[in-house]
Amino acid sequence: MIWEMWNLFLERSDFFADLLWEHLGISLLAIVIAVLIGGAAGILISEVRGAAKPTLGVVSFLYTIPSISMLGFLIPFSGVGNATAVIALTVYALLPMVRNTYAGMTNVDPAILEAAKGMGSTRMQVLFKIRLPLAMPVIMSGIRSMVTMTIALAGIASFIGAGGLGVAIYRGITTNNTAMTMDGSLLIALLALLMDFLLGIVERRMTKCSAEAKKVNHRIAAAVLVLCLAGAGVGMFRTHTGDTVHIATKPMTEQYVLGEMLELLIEQDTDLNVELTQGVGGGTSNIQPAMESGEFDMYPEYTGTAWNMVLKEDSLYTEDLFGELEQAYEDDYSMEWVGMYGFNNTYGLVARREIAEQYGLKTYSDLAAAAGELTFGAEYDFFEREDGYDSLCETYGLEFKDTMDLDIGLKYQALNEGQIDVMVVFTTDGQLSSSDVVVLEDDLQFFPSYLCGNVIRSEVLEAHPELNEVFEKLTGTISDNDMAEMNYKVETEGREPEDVAEEFLRDCGLLE
Amino acid sequence: METMIEFRHVKKSYGDKPVLKDFNLTVEKGEFVTIIGSSGCGKTTALKMVNGLLEPDGGDIFVYGENIRGKDQTQLRRNIGYAIQGSVLFPHMTVEQNISYVPNLLNKKDRKKTRDAVSKWMKIVGLDDELRSRFPSELSGGQQQRVGIARALAASPEILLMDEPFGAVDEITRGQLQTEIGRIHAQTGITVMFVTHDISEALKLGTKVLVMDKGDIQQYDRPEELLRHPATDFVKKLVAQQRHACHLPDDRLEECEYSGVRTC
Question: Half-sphere exposure (CA, 13 Å, Cβ side) for A431?
């Protein structure tokens, strides 16, 4: 495992270096903002004591909001991406900052303050010459713990499409690449430790008490602040020349592959730049609002999901509703469906080949006669869902001999070993392509259809008609089995989505 | 004689508890007034009213001949030296920075003048010049008190307020510091108000001693008058030991009732 992690790190060192910079940029910007705002607030409430309680109350309350919901709240205001991540991180960093500043400021010996006042210092002079310097050690330790916390928390920023090492973690999780998840986590931990170490040095330097050392300290502090801001700026906002298409993908292996394909083809066939935001957390529910606000220009979507989640229809989606779906997208959102890939990522029933041959199973209806002698397997939730097991059995008149709850990772093994005979799958499951099974036909259309295509903002398509060519090329090129194979290569063989995408496009002759 | 500080019918209470009822006091230029009394008698309160740290509930206070009510308190304080109980040096500043604190508030530009003032005052209070760049935590208790005095005097004020400045040092150092402050007073002719709870210190340092009890002045007079003619029972009790201290040669010590030499 450690070997694997090390190899991956060496192979993809550029990728990790980019993420590391971005992570540092996002964290540092949030830290600097929090130090300034939180420090100012802490100082203010130590002067105007009446404001202390309400202020601390508010920042404590903000601190208790779970990070996922915080990001969710912010998306409608600041969209997806780095800005939202910085805002959320800043909000969390405020509490330790405000609280420590306040504690430091209020714990200065009152006798010293009275002496300063008695000698004729103005309020501001007491504040900046006496109080603040004496509160500094407490403030500093607050900053130190806040920095570590912020760097760790920044890992979650990738859930809303921001960059940073969280991208590696999240990608690792969705594409079943443990080494990548571990590398990402480890780098975050190392980064946090490193920053803590550096701040430890700063803390020690600050307690060093000679006028000379202080002068040096001031210069170092100024230099570091400038570097922080510069680093944050560079890390966050890289500029592109020419027009850019912003593509988002959902956190699913096949979407990672599709995203890479789109990037490769668009950059080959047009003059456009592609900015790819892979694996946006929350999928459709976060990408759709960002599409509406114009932050993203396009993303791969499934017809059935669009019907239920975007158009909020309750009915079962079948492909004869596609015209209606397209019309609704055009009317309600000024978006279009283009480049339907051809594969359908829906639920499906499969039978082990020997069983299928033995009973002559081709369609779900064929199962009715044989079900009494077969064991059915599915994930736990399939048995619970309203449109799940019970409803399926009712539609096709099935009565299985036995049923079994299985974890998604183990069900193929169970089928191959004969513990179960028939099970529910997703039609593009990576392992489907390597298993000796027969996919049965949903002849009564029990499961909704989830054909995959691209949703694009009409505005973008009008501005760049050259994109149509790319979508035409992609239309109908990927079958269920092709997609399943590509998923298998990523999830089981541990290959990179980019390689898999490139290989496929080359094999189809789409890439030169 | 010129009047430096004057209290006229000053009243002050904390909540329901009156501290000063009708306080009248005149301090002439160049006097060294020691203020003594039981704790809570209002001596620190009276002191802090001179530099405006506390405001009277009624009555008026005149400093340098002017009523301080409604005057710029910050400016007033910069012209009055202030040294308080224990050591409240600024712990994050060096000896030099501590001493030059007030001069820096007054004239930021003239660094040389400030540096010279620091040297001068360090010499006067008996601090070695190499202590300049030390921090308070690196000084002995006596040295800290000296820095505190130098800091109070650095801007050459004409009035110096001291609130039990030698309360936290050992007996021997206190004796030395008392001698120093006496010498400084004699040298500079500065007007001093000095709060203490030690009657021997009050009698030794003061050109005038103010005895207070429960917010009232018991007696305000030269130390020898206090010993000769204590005005009230309170004063009498307070100075009893000093009255009976007999400065007799060794062979006559037995004649004194209070001498430890006498055997029964």
Answer: 16
The answer to whether B86 faces chain A, any CB pair under 8 Å, is yes
Distance CA B159, CA B134 (A): 28
Other C-beta atoms within 10 Å of A61: how many?
10
What integer is the mean pLDDT of A397-413?
Answer: 84
Per-residue pLDDT tens digits for A274-317: 988 888 877 888 888 889 888 899 999 999 989 988 998 888 88
Closest CA to B210 of B200, B195, B198: B195
Question: pLDDT per residue over A172-225, tens digit each?
Answer: 887 878 888 899 999 999 999 999 999 888 888 777 655 566 677 778 878 877
Contact (CB, 8 A) for B158 and B64: yes
- Contact of B162 with chain A, judged by CB distance below 8 Å, is answered with no
Q: Flag if B79 and A130 touch (Cβ within 8 Å).
A: no
Interface of B with A in 37-56 (CB under 8 A): 48, 51, 53
- In sequence order, the 6+-apart residues with CB closer than 8 A to the CB of B64 are B4, B79, B158, B159
| Per-residue pLDDT, A211 | 57
Contacts of A117 in chain B (CB under 8 A): 53, 77
Could you give the dihedral angle defined by the CA atoms of residues B171, B176, B177 and B180, in that order, rounded to the nearest 10 degrees?
Answer: 160
User: So where are chain B's domains?
Assistant: 1-77+192-264
Asked if A117 reaches chain B (Cβ–Cβ under 8 Å), the answer is: yes
Chain B, 120-149: which have a CB under 8 Å from a chain A CB?
A: 133, 135
Residue A239 has a pLDDT of 46
Mean pLDDT, range B48-67, rounded to an integer: 90
Judged by phi (left if over 0) then psi (alpha if -120 to 50, else beta), residue B261 lies in: alpha
**Closest to A454 in 3D by CA, of A254, A277, A323, A299:** A299
Q: Which residues of B touch A129 (CB under 8 A)?
A: 101
d(CA B1, CA B4): 9
Using one digit for the tens of pLDDT, what is the confidence trace for B7-45? 999 999 888 888 888 899 999 999 999 999 887 788 889
Q: Is A213 on the interface with B (CB under 8 A)?
A: no
Asked if the Cβ–Cβ distance from A112 to B79 is below 8 Å, we say no
Residues in A closer than 8 angstroms to B90, CB to CB, are 112, 115-116, 130, 134
For residues B221 and B229, give the distance between their C-alpha atoms in angstroms, rounded to a whole number: 10
Interface-testing mutation among A107, A119, A217, with chain B (most B C-beta atoms within 10 A): A119
* Single-letter code of the amino acid located at A240: H
Contact A134 B91 (CB under 8 A): yes
- In CATH, the number for domain B1-77+192-264 is 3.40.50.300
In degrees, to the nearest 5, what angle opens at C-alpha B125 toward C-alphas B124 and B128?
90
Strand bridging mode A452-457 / A298-302: antiparallel
Is the minimum CB–CB distance between B84 and chain A shorter than 8 Å?
yes
Nearest to B206 by CA among B181, B187, B228, B231: B181
User: What distance in Å separates the CA atoms of residue B5 and residue B23, rounded to the nearest whole number?
Assistant: 13
pLDDT in tens, B188-206: 899 999 999 889 899 999 9
A112 to B90: CB separation less than 8 angstroms, yes or no: yes
